[in-house]
């Protein structure tokens, strides 16, 4: 497992932007995947986006349909950091956002497939 710490988040108006960052400590290997999940009040945690933590084999990032075209996940290998750029925010994007990691590169969108988690950061979008 690795240790993950999120930063960023906060409050934005609908149509605005926010950027989240996730910094890892511990041993990140080329076969790890980083992901973002979110959990709104009263709802289950849901997948947002994921990307291989290293640029291994050119595997692309993948996204939930609800955020495609608005959110972008990216990695900074020099800092072991993964970011989530969120544009054109909507009130329904309001949630606690979690960074997660797993060993393996197959596309996985299920919470149970990830074994390392950050503490979460709140994102609130006002209408």
Structural class: mainly beta
Order of helical and strand elements? EEEEEEEEEEE
Average pLDDT level: 93
How many strand units?
Answer: 11
Provide a concise account of the structure shown.
The protein is an all-beta fold and 127 residues long.
What attributes characterize this protein structure?
127 residues
Task: Characterise this structure.
The protein starts with a strand and ends with a strand. With 127 residues, it is mainly β. Strand 7 and strand 8 form a beta hairpin. It is globular. The chain is 0% helix and 50% strand.
Task: Outline the secondary-structure elements.
Elements: E1 3-8, E2 10-13, E3 18-25, E4 32-39, E5 46-52, E6 62-63, E7 71-76, E8 81-86, E9 95-103, E10 116-117, E11 121-126
Parallel strand pairs: 2-11
Antiparallel strand pairs: 1-3, 3-8, 4-5, 4-9, 5-6, 7-8, 9-10, 9-11
